[in-house]
Amino acid sequence: MRRGYRSRRNSGLGWSMLLLIVIITIVSGAGYIYMSEEFERVPPKIETPKFSYWNTKHPLSIAISDNFRLKHYKVLLTDGTNSVVILDENPNDLVKDKKIEINYPKHSNLNPKAKELELIITVTDASRWNYLIGNSSEKSVRFKIDNRRPTINIISNSYSIRRGGSALVIFQAFDDDELSDISIVVGDNRFKAQPYIKDGYFVSLIAWSFLDDDFQANIVVKDRAGNSRSTSIPLYIRTENKRVKYRTSWIKASDRFIDGKITDLAEEDEKYMKEDKLERLKAINETMRIENEKLIKKYTTYISNKTLYSWDIKRFYPLKHGKKVANFGDDRHYYYTDKSHEVSQSYHLGYDMASTKMAPILASNRGKVVFAEYNGIYGNMPIIDHGLGLYTLYGHCSTLEVKEGDVVRAGQQIAQTGKSGLALGDHLHFGILVQGVEVRPIEWLDRRWIRDNIQKIFEEANKIISPKDVKKVKK
Questions:
Q1: For residues 370 and 193, what is the distance between their CA atoms, to the nearest angstrom?
Q2: Spatial distance between the Cα atoms of 237 and 162, rounded to a whole number of angstroms
Q3: d(CA 221, CA 183)
Q4: I need a labelling partner for 314 at 20 to 30 A (CA). Which of 15, 108, 168, 172 fits?
Q5: Helical spans, DSSP H, in 154-262
Q6: pTM for this predicted structure
Q7: Phi, psi (5° rounding) for residue 243?
Q8: Within this chain, do residues 127 and 190 fall inside the same structural domain, yes or no?
């Protein structure tokens, strides 16, 4: 009896052990499947273009990726009736991500007159999940076909431009679908255009940087499908100033100047306080100047995207009875003992005027103050936005009577002249910028130049666009 009992008992223990081993094996296998990278359950990612137009001339870029590795991808293009397989590939190497370029098949059964196409992308990874089939993703994207380039018609523009100068252009731009970008390219500078009077018309001030010897201005318009058109603005180049350099000045950097004004500015930040006094001069005149000009550009590049109905600008006259003491664009070279010992160089990007000490500075045109603080070599400096990307800058002020956000009227006092920043005598540094580009203030000080190059351009364009719309122009 005991022997039979032990036999049954041992047999029960054997089955229990076997069951335990099976359970452990199953749990271990399940754990391996759950934790193993080979059994990951995350489907591949498909990233397609965000726009919904295609010109079929340029390839579409598609990005596919997987956190394990890609096994297969297929791209199909259909017009709703006919279809064509663009790609059907199995990557040979262990790739986790891949960029695919889809070109329109020139020789296929797709309808060449189709106005819309659908792109279907299917991607499978190399995971052993889903009964060893792997994880799959599918994405469908519809594109409207647009092969036509936008249209540009120049309505009116300034007759001429000279190096360092400004000009105005008013034009029409439209497309069968939506435009994605409208700009005027001048060298390395890109100027934005503001909508004008009614849909499809635009206006922009442009500038020829005084640092550039050559000039070419092109209106560039792109639509959402990637089609683009470029049209040159027919501006007469004032050759008398095309190759003539601006004034070159040689300035002796005395110990008194370096130990005084230069050191005073260097003490604002230890990175400028060089032990060698000539290096200190260079740090202020060049490094600090670059940082100050970056700040100026930051506050002077904005142009509204709201429709402009009128823009009335009068000549600027910021300092009554002010006398010119320095020109715009002066090429200034600083030397220590003699001209053979040049230590620093910079360009003067303004028009200096002086009258009496702490003379009142007036806003010649209505505008909004976008900056009114201290700015290194420019000292106390307000900047006013006059609309259409035109900004005025007032440097070296002794006092500021406006703050950022203030709307000033024509004739309002905004500051007083002084010698803050890198100025040895009491004066006003007056600057004008067109979308961040410094231009010749002398043009904007001239009533006749404004009439011929700005006011007449608006008048001519208004007559062409639509007399009815001109009568409705908001004042």
A1: 20
A2: 6
A3: 7
A4: 172
A5: 255-257
A6: 0.81
A7: -110, -5
A8: no
